[in-house]
Amino acid sequence: MTNIIATEHGVSRRMALKVLAVMSASGHAQAEPGILSLQRPDAKATDSMTDPNLRSPTAPWPRTLSEQALQTLSVLCDLILPADDTSPSASTLGCHEFIDEWVSAPYPDQMRDNELILDGLVWLDKEAQRRFKQCAFTALEVPQQHEICGDICAEEADTTHLQLGTDFFAKVRNLTAAAYWTTQEGMDDLGYIGNVPLSKWTLPPKEVLAHLKLTTSDIP
Amino acid sequence: MSEYDVIVVGSGAAGGMSAYVLTCAGVKVLMLEAGRDYDPVTETPMFEQNKDAPLRGAGTPDKPFGYYDATVDGGWQVPGEPYSSDDGVDFLWWRSRMLGGRTNHWGRISLRMGEYDFKPYSRDGLGADWPLDYADLAPYYDKTEALVGIYGSNEGLENTPNSSPGVLLAPPAARADELLTRKYCKDLGIPVIPIHRAVLSEKQDYKRWPQLLHPNNPLGQRVTREIMQARAACFWATPCGRGCSIGANFQSPTVLIPPALATGNLTIRTNAMVYEVVTNKEGNAEGVNFIDKLTGKQETVTARAVVLAASGCETARIMLNSKSTQFPDGIANSSGLVGKYIMDTIGTGVLGQIPMLEHTPAHNTHGASGMHNYMPWWLYKEQAKGQLDFARGYHIEFGGGRRAPGAGSFANLERLNGGNYGAQFKEDCRRYYGSFIGYSGRGEMIPNEDCYCTIDPEQKDKWGIPTLKFFWKWSDHELNQTRHMQHTFKDIIESMGGNVLSEIHDNGADAIKKPGEIIHEVGGARMGSDPQQSVLNEFCQSWDVPNLFVTDGAAFVSNADKNPTLSILALAWRSSDYLIAELLRRNL
Description:
The complex is a heterodimer of chains A (220) and B (588).
Chain A: H1 13-25, H2 67-80, H3 95-103, H4 108-132, H5 142-152, H6 163-182, H7 184-190, H8 206-211
Chain B: E1 6-9, H1 13-24, E2 29-32, H2 40-43, E3 84-85, H3 115-118, H4 120-124, H5 134-148, H6 176-188, E4 193-194, H7 209-213, H8 218-230, H9 252-255, H10 257-262, E5 266-269, E6 272-279, E7 285-292, E8 298-302, E9 305-308, H11 312-321, E10 346-353, E11 373-374, H12 380-384, E12 394-400, H13 414-417, H14 423-432, E13 436-443, E14 452-460, E15 466-471, H15 476-495, E16 499-500, E17 548-550, H16 565-584
Parallel strand pairs in B: 1-2, 1-9, 2-5, 3-15, 9-17
Antiparallel strand pairs in B: 4-11, 6-7, 7-8, 10-13, 10-16, 12-13, 14-15
Helix pairs in contact in B: 1-16, 5-16
């Protein structure tokens, strides 16, 4: 039964042991080992973009954002998702670097986002200049940064002048959230529980049923 | 004399099942697969996480259903293998180029067609009837379900058939969002019941089934017992769409191909791109021509019979490209119906945010990855009374829960909170996590003369093989049904006190998914009882070329709202039994 979890890459030895323990506990491992293999030992990915090796994922494209752009995004990411008692700030978790990975990708959606992010970064620095006579958003005092962000965080832009800034901010917010909550720290903060093998599947816990006001008559 | 009795073109649901049944009976089979070899055991990214994938696993043109989706070299486009659509048509054709084809990534939803679904024309005068009844296929549904392993329950609802006692595996307990939906759908009169999916919720009974599936056939019994022993039951983790390295769900390379190989009667050639069926002077199929994609060389293989199972449209392409003096319009096309009456499933979706689900205590909602519950079509009586402005039904698929966060999990929260950032935004992410439920309709399209494919005179693929061009037109039945879906989903969400996040369209044309987008494209070589009105008989055998069979979705006459794969498997088994009998009778 050991051949069912490939341990050579990707899955940790800890996870492999956990899987085997669960399968053994639930009677799965009673099958005689190796009686009929599901394996096709000669098959492997061609490592092209449409057939990457899914067990050792990589983003093969070069990153394109400048150091300055990354600095600005790092500040913005932390304004969007700051540290608190539960979890760290967005830049600590590399959210700005994820935005670099995203906008550097060779796909139409990401190329459109790249344009928006680059234009938005220019807009942001110009806005810093216009409002506070500073050369860059990163040179502003924190309350000044909040003043600008407060004006461009709404769903709809208040004025035509704020349109680009608003679109840009929404994009950065979406990408920051995408990066943040997919990290281990983000998942832990949300209370995501999963991606672990279980020996049996049961109804939701009592406190969940109570939270949803589901009673015995609601359960088949 | 060829060393093979039968050539099977394709290795997915139809090809896998044909090969399994034939080889168990001692028939020597050569399977030709256009894609590469594939190892579900070492290649499947079981526990890999979004944080480790490019773009956090988001879909791209290279990997449209996300980085970890099992599909190899495919999706909406296969590199170097284009297709085209008529002006104003945007047909989407999902293909994969790998052993097992699309069975590696599919949703595993396995619903039987019911009695009504085989006789749609007799019921409402639209479309065409199948040349067989539900009763003809029911034993094959039982056998298929027992072999591949389907969880679910028997509810005895109208046109929603029960399986024979003991066939189904235990349905997994409902999740929170499923229980909540069920509670509120009760008042709306919409039944929410366990769905049938091809996932082993428990270990198969490998002592009982082999004898029942292959009476008096020790070889068939042995390999079937062995595959049932080798597959593990679901451990309630990892997404089915990535495939399953422990064989807990159905995919051809973990369920059908290993036992077929274990008979010693199956030979597999991968990277073998079949482009035509070769015929002899008598008009019988002699074999096929294919291109070895690794060498670029053309090869010919011969056998007593040919089974096309390349996926509906690819099969139509091979048939239309198989031109000869006897078959100037393509092989087995005296009816002129090859490529005609293609159908997809009607699809549309609405997303809801359910305040009741906010701050639900943390718990595991993964289950069997796909749905545990669904809603079968429930308005047969209203339809019979003429109270609806569309003729056929749909079922509802839905899902929510505290899933593994992905690239899009927190997109566009500004639609709920008006747009903010900082501590409040962080708190909102926590609040809204797991509070969304998406409802999708999957409905029956009625076949029509305007939905078909032909060979594009202006395009060839990189192997020099002429490609397909698609034509499409929805009728009012499809568009009106789409509108009905939209409003039903809105009603469900609002009954739960939820926020409807999708725009609700009164014009179905604005909400219906593109043709092909549901990836249920069937038809193109339909079966029937009249050789002038169909390409195949009820056993998937060509009327014109008796040793040519089509066991994939091309044979479909109608496309009930029931997802087609289970029916493809059952029809392929039935066709293969007939093929074996014909070989034994020396008729082929």
